[in-house]
Design goal:
The protein is mainly α. Helix content is about 60%, strand content about 5%. It has nine helices and three strands; from the N terminus they run H-H-H-H-H-H-H-H-E-E-E-H. Helix 2 (about 30-55) runs antiparallel to helix 3, helix 3 (about 60-80) crosses helix 5 and helix 6 (about 140-155) packs antiparallel against helix 7.
């Protein structure tokens, strides 16, 4: 792939392909294994491939895809312990499972339940509790400047963390983009350092005199 002889393939997609057969082989119930194989083939894998073609698969996306499979498997086993099946699963089963499991477990199972209803593998009248999305309040301008000032001046913080933090605070870039930056993305133009990557869009990243300028300006305003 490096030489261009073979088409590029996302390594995390390959990792998922290698992991899946082993997981399915470990499912004792043949009907459960069949259901999970179909779910993986027609729901999980197509979305992973689409993501790989559109951009790239991150470790967290690969992990979440595997957890969707694992929790779907666990749910089928749980139904079996209640002398129930996916086809006979009722609202009382859904409510009981949600009551027994945490938020992450519910999030991982949601895709399987939606897929099962869409494919008529369970009752389409089932109601899946809505997801509650909680978000932290955004930093105020003063909080953002305080954090930025510390990153620019605190020599005790490792340089790589300071650089990543500055990109986050200045350009609101996700860490998944920041970790893909390499030394080839850095351009020195006199005393100015530019990033030639999707994270900064050629905007100035860090000027050598910025820590002093920040310190002086903050002192003047306090």
């Amino acid at each position: 792939m490096t030489c261009g002889v073979l088409p590029a393939v996302d390594k995390y997609l390959c990792s998922f392909h290698r992991w899946l057969p082993g997981h399915i082989a470990g499912i004792a119930d043949p009907e459960h294994a069949k259901t999970i194989r179909i779910f993986a083939t027609w729901r999980v894998l197509p979305r992973l491939r689409a993501r790989a073609e559109r951009s790239h698969i991150t470790p967290s996306i690969r992990r979440f895809a595997a957890e969707q499979i694992k929790y779907a498997t666990a749910f089928l086993q749980w139904l079996g312990e209640r002398n129930s099946t996916l086809a006979s699963c009722g609202q009382i089963d859904i409510d009981a499972w949600y009551a027994e499991n945490n938020k992450h477990s519910r999030t991982c199972l949601r895709a399987f339940l939606n897929w099962s209803m869409q494919r008529r593998r369970c009752r389409r009248t089932l109601s899946i509790p809505a997801m509650k999305v909680s978000r932290r309040a955004a930093l105020s301008e003063d909080e953002r400047l305080d954090a930025l000032g510390r990153l620019l001046t605190d020599a005790e913080i490792p340089m790589r963390l300071r650089a990543a933090g500055v990109i986050v605070l200045l350009y609101a870039q996700p860490l998944s983009r920041i970790v893909r930056l390499t030394v080839d993305d850095v351009i020195r133009d006199g005393d100015t350092v530019l990033l030639d990557g999707s994270a900064s869009q050629h905007r100035p990243f860090l000027h050598r005199s910025q820590p002093c300028c920040w310190s002086t300006s903050r002192t003047a305003t306090t």
